[in-house]
User: Which sequence fits this backbone?
């Protein structure tokens, strides 16, 4: 293994790009003109950036991680016999609990609605400001950022990490590397642990996990999520965004000339080059080629090469360049959020091109979001706490009776989503003279237990004197389920099969 002399300091491989501004020895690892079907990974050593966007990223990381780790521990009183965890995907009760909302398996369309809203929200944000989701809030970005912060804690910033990797394996190097990987594994374990807590009462499961009494499946998923967090956030990092995630390819369909994107303002920056002592700014651009923007980039790209699919729009290069502009006394914003339309207008010597946030595609996405939210909100506000399903017997469509009457069999399912038992009365309408009997139930209301489904078998008989009034092969009628306490009725269409069906060819 090659090694650097021990007494080598960072300053030894840094020149000056301008008086007092270091020129970093860094080159873009990922370039659009060098994209290959397969390329051996070159490690990226992102440098710590300082500035507004870095602070926003720290803030978003703190908020998202706090939500993720704390949410399973929040309690929500739903009364006796029900879990008191605010957010729980409860397989035992077959329900998703989200604070005051309970989603039953029969209502999975709400989850579909949530996914549709999320997708449309992502489209809208991308149309407005490119991949800001990727740059700030995507779990891959958040965990990778966290892993890099931990690596920086144990091994130092960019130059120190490069030096450490080139050093021979000393006790100090082994210690730093082991502590880094151990910390990543602890983060992975916490991440996997938090995820399984969303599926079972968190305090109980935590105790079970520690005492070795948790179900085997909990340990299995804990292991899987620990490993994948360590692998994707600690080891694979930008490779996930570039090679595994389809979003960089899809997002190009959502951006247009008016989308705000992190851009290098070549009209202001070129011709670039180091600024020598005593040199003025006439006849040259503001870019002093210090490469601070490249050194901080977690994706290993040079934003000065133009828009690239690898760019996650994290804006750390903006912070790095602004810091440099402050040092050399030039205006900030050589790298900034800008639109292609504005840049083209500037290059053509045109006037000021305003940023157009309101455009047909952003209006379309916003309207669709409002529509889906409206439909879901209406559905949630008008949700019934009782659901009724009627199934006709499949095997025997009808039974001709010895007295000339006809009988049909049904299964009536009443789902009680309330947390107390409900009494219901059952009757039929639309079948002249029909008699209804609930098998195993003599008379009076049918009791449906709290948070449960009650299935009853129902026989409907049309006596001989009314068989003539049927409309063969099937007659439409209704089952009516009446909630005794609230007097509300639910009607379900059903069909009565009769003998004439057999006479049909
Ligand atoms: S764009 Fe800014 S940060 Fe990047 S090399 Fe030029 S001056 Fe340095
Ligand atoms: S080029 Fe700038 S915005 Fe794009 S990924 Fe790199 S640092 Fe982030």
Assistant:
């Amino acid at each position: 293994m090659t090694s650097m002399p021990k007494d080598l300091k960072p300053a030894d491989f840094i020149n000056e790009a301008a008086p007092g501004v270091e020129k970093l020895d860094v080159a873009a690892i990922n370039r659009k003109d060098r994209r290959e079907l397969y390329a051996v990974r070159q490690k990226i050593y992102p440098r710590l950036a300082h500035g507004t966007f870095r602070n926003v990223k720290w803030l978003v990381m703190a908020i998202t991680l706090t939500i993720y780790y704390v949410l399973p521990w929040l309690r929500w009183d739903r009364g006796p016999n029900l879990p008191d965890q605010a957010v729980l995907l409860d397989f035992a009760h077959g329900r998703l609990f989200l604070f005051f909302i309970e989603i039953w398996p029969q209502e999975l369309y709400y989850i579909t609605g949530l996914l549709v809203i999320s997708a449309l929200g992502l489209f809208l944000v991308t149309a407005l400001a490119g991949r800001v989701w990727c740059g700030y809030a995507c779990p891959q970005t958040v965990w990778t950022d966290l892993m890099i912060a931990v690596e920086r804690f144990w091994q130092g910033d960019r130059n120190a990490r490069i030096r450490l990797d080139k050093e021979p394996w000393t006790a100090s190097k082994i210690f730093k590397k082991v502590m880094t990987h151990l910390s990543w594994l602890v983060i992975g374990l916490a991440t996997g642990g938090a995820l399984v807590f969303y599926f079972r009462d968190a305090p109980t499961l935590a105790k079970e996990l520690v005492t070795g009494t948790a179900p085997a499946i909990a340990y299995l998923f804990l292991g899987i999520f620990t490993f994948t967090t360590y692998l994707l956030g600690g080891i694979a990092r930008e490779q996930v965004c570039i090679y595994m995630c389809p979003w960089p390819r899809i997002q190009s369909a959502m951006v247009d000339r008016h989308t705000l994107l992190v851009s290098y303002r070549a009209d202001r920056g070129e011709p670039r080059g180091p600024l020598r002592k005593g040199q003025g700014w006439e006849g040259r651009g503001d870019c002093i080629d210090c490469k601070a923007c490249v050194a901080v980039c977690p994706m290993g790209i040079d934003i000065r090469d133009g828009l690239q699919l690898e760019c996650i729009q994290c804006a750390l290069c903006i912070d790095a360049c602004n810091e440099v502009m402050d040092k050399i006394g030039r205006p900030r914003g050589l790298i900034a959020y800008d639109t292609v339309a504005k840049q083209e207008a500037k290059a053509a010597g045109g006037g000021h091109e305003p940023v157009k946030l309101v455009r047909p595609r952003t209006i379309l996405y916003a309207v669709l979001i409002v529509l889906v939210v409206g439909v879901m909100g209406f559905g949630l506000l008008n949700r019934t706490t009782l659901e009724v399903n009627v199934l006709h017997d499949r095997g025997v469509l009808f039974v001709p009776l010895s007295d000339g009457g006809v009988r049909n069999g049904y299964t009536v399912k009443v789902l009680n989503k309330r947390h107390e038992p409900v009494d219901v009365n059952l009757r039929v309408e639309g079948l002249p003279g029909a008699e209804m009997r609930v098998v195993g139930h003599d008379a009076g209301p049918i009791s449906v237990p709290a948070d449960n489904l009650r299935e009853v078998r129902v026989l409907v008989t049309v006596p001989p004197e009314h068989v003539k009034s049927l409309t063969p092969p099937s007659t439409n009628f209704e089952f009516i389920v009446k909630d005794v306490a609230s007097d509300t009725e639910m009607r379900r269409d059903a069909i009565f099969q009769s003998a004439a069906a057999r006479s049909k060819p």
In short: The first helix runs from residue 52 to 70. The CA atoms of residues 110 and 379 lie 9 Å apart.
